[in-house]
Design goal:
Elements (H helix, E strand, L loop, with lengths): L1 H5 L4 H20 L1 H4 L15 H6 L18 E7 L6 H11 L5 E4 L8 H10 L2 E4 L12 H19 L5 E2 L17 E2 L8 H4 L2 H11 L5 E5 L3 H16 L3 E3 L1 H5 L8
Parallel strand pairs: 1-2, 1-6, 1-7, 2-3, 4-5
Helix pairs in contact: 5-6, 5-10, 6-7, 9-10
The chain binds nickel (II) ion (NI).
Length: 262
């Protein structure tokens, strides 16, 4: 009983404590970027984000895409390479938006001019835009400075169109020489599921090949320049949902700490 009295606070003390709590909480919120610093990419990238462009981007509506918690549910990343394309990429974005499904786009730098609105829309919807080089060379055939040029020019175009800096590089064809070919600071990212959509050009084959191979933590390689691939996406999403696999972006997958799941 004595202990109980010892710790009972006078009402006025409670008020003071509450006021201090509010002040501390406000300070923490105001300095949130100090408490939770964002990782800086400035030291590893030649082209820091264009802050002027960033400030003009409207904030994506929170309901644009679903954001499942990969620590709780098994996740997969659908990635689309070789775009953007005015017709097929637009159709894919319509489809993903309607299903609130996030995806990652590995774009080619030379395709961005004239398609800035597509990249801007990707970002506004909550998609990720990453680097697939300027014009799809086999990087193992290029000199190191030519590789860096392929990467940097594409980074510049992505930043110009979206105000966001890429974090991942996917070498065309997966062609890479470990320890030899530079990444210019980007994370090298390939895939574990390849339905060979570029070869089959057939909706049913793409669906079958994807769903038969995908597992928790998978990164699926698709191409948003083939109409048959876009046709396959609704059934792929149905199949993932039936198996309890939640699509997320690559960054969400790679930071989820559940690679591979289970
Ligand atoms: Ni490619």
């Amino acid at each position: 009983m004595r202990a109980k009295h010892r710790y009972r606070a006078h009402p006025s003390r409670l008020l003071v404590t509450a006021l201090i709590g509010v002040v501390v909480a406000s300070g923490a919120a105001a300095s949130g970027w100090i408490l939770f610093p964002k990782p800086t990419t400035a030291s590893t990238h030649a082209n820091p984000p264009d802050t002027a462009s960033t400030s003009t981007l409207p904030t994506p509506p929170p309901e644009a895409v679903a954001r499942p918690d990969c620590r709780v549910v098994p996740c997969v990343a659908l990635t689309f390479d070789d775009g953007p394309d005015r017709v097929t990429t637009s159709r894919l974005l319509d489809l993903l938006e309607a299903r609130r499904t996030p995806a990652t786009f590995f774009v080619l730098g030379h395709r961005i001019a004239g398609n800035e609105d597509l990249l801007s829309r990707m970002v506004h919807l909550g998609m990720e835009v990453e680097n697939h080089t300027w014009d799809h060379p086999n990087l193992t055939h290029l000199a190191p400075d030519a590789v860096v040029d392929q990467i940097r020019r594409t980074n510049e175009e992505i930043v110009r169109a979206t105000g966001r800096h890429p974090e991942h590089l996917r070498p065309p064809g997966g062609n890479w020489s470990p320890g030899v070919t530079p990444t210019d600071g980007l994370t090298l990212t390939t895939w574990d599921v390849d339905p060979r959509d570029w070869f089959h050009r057939n909706r049913a084959a793409v669906v079958q090949n994807t769903l038969s191979a995908v597992q928790p933590g998978s990164i699926v390689l698709l191409h948003d320049i083939h109409p048959s691939t876009i046709d396959a996406v609704p059934e792929i999403l149905d199949g993932l949902e039936a198996r309890g696999l939640a699509p997320v972006t690559l960054r969400e997958l790679s930071t989820s700490g559940t690679l591979p799941h289970e």
